Amino acid sequence: MSSTLLMILLPLIILSSIPQESDGQLEEWCIADEQTPDEDLQKAVDWACGNGANCSKIQVNQPCYLPNTLKDHASFAFNSYFQKLKHKGASCYFAAAAIVTALDPSHGSCKFEYLP
Ligand SMILES: *[C@@H]1O[C@H](CO)[C@@H](O)[C@H](O)[C@H]1NC(C)=O
């Protein structure tokens, strides 16, 4: 084998041996951006809950009601919307009120779903 060919093949062999996530995708959740003003967050939550997000878990006495902050409720609503509709072209944006995170935001009995 010529050394030129080896120089081309070697990086390919090394790259292909790096383990990948089984489906090649990283787990991502969609949460509220801390810097978003409350007024904008509230609008985005109302919109998300009316357009596909399942907001039942952030209602009083439900597992994601606490902590009862707009930011936490917005994060749950954004993620619900994003997970359900991401394969239909939805993005984690909400007029810049949302950001993507690789850290699972679930806490206690409040589970933020991740759909592959
Ligand atoms: C919303 O979530 C609740 C609790 O997980 C579930 O019982 C309900 O069926 C869901 N509603 C819709 C429309 O998916």
Descriptive overview:
It is a lipid-anchor; GPI-anchor. Its main location: membrane. Keywords: Cell membrane, Disulfide bond, Glycoprotein, GPI-anchor, Lipoprotein, Membrane, Signal. This is X8 domain-containing protein. The chain has about 120 residues and is mainly α. It is about 35% helix and about 5% strand. It is elongated and about 70 Å long. About 25% of the residues are buried. The structure holds 2-acetamido-2-deoxy-beta-D-glucopyranose.
- State the separation between the terminal residues, measured CA to CA: 42 Å
Number of strands: 2
User: What ligand species are in this complex?
Assistant: 2-acetamido-2-deoxy-beta-D-glucopyranose
Q: Would you identify the regions where 5 or more consecutive residues have pLDDT less than 50?
A: none
Strand line-up across the major sheet: 1-2
The arrangement of helices and strands along the chain is: HEHHE
Radius of gyration: 20 Å
Number of helices: 3
Structural class: mainly alpha
Instruction: Indicate the percent of residues in helices.
Output: 25-40%
Mean pLDDT over the residues = 89
Beta content: 5-15%
Please describe the biggest sheet, giving its number of strands, its sense, and whether it closes into a barrel: 2 strands, antiparallel
What general form does the structure show?
Answer: elongated
